[in-house]
Design goal:
mainly alpha; two-stranded antiparallel ribbon; 10 helices; 2 strands; 1% strand; globular
Length: 278
Amino acid sequence: MSSAGRHRPGTAGAERDRTGHDQADGDWAERLWDEARRRLIDVLPKPMAEQVPPVYEESDAIRMRRRQIVSGFGVAGAGLLGLSLAAKPGSRRFYVLTGALAATWTAGAIASGPLHLGWIRTLGESTRRPVLTPIGTGVLAFGAFYGAALVAREIPLLEGAIGNVLRYADQGSTPLVVLTTCTNGIAEELFFRGALYSVFRDEHPVLTSTLAYTAVTAASRNPALVLAGGVMGALFGLQRRASGGIQAPALTHLTWSVLMLRFLPPLFRKAIRQELRG
């Protein structure tokens, strides 16, 4: 018998084993991919326009009470904001006034009635508290503002206005500046996207809360701050509408504020020095 016709012991078995191993490896990779895909779908949020936020019913009496409290605390907060940005950067007066401002926004929000954290719906139709998405949104918002800042520093009016605001970040105790920024960011969300948004829930709340937020920042008499307030106020309002609560806008606000505080002052050293000398 020729060698071509002879049977080689073990060859067929080895081929079957190899085929079996290849199939097992393929099945394992497919299962791994399916599991990763399932987890990703269960984490990724649906687009903002497809979110269905929870509806919290409130009586007319509660809403009227909210309106009265929000009006009073809103006027007080605007006054304190103007005073705090007129104080000397890094001074005790500045920290006292900004602390009082955060306390005013927080007290007004809590006194107005119940506040809600909100939920987001994922592509897998599960609901979660918003965490990663708003943090990522804050990073993206900072990136957009950083790009705009590169342009703004070439425009004298905007460069001076931004330098005027950033001198408060550049002077004094860094931990105190960060603490002041974070507490005021959270307090603003409690008040504007919590209490005030709830007052105008049925009256174009995103637009109304954004206009109110922008109007309050106008007390600073700083065009850069007013512009930033309008843009970010609209974003925070959309997040509030999509999630039904304050957690998403608060996390975005904190992320954006801390990054701005860390990376913008080096771009405006010259403007900051000029503002401090003036």
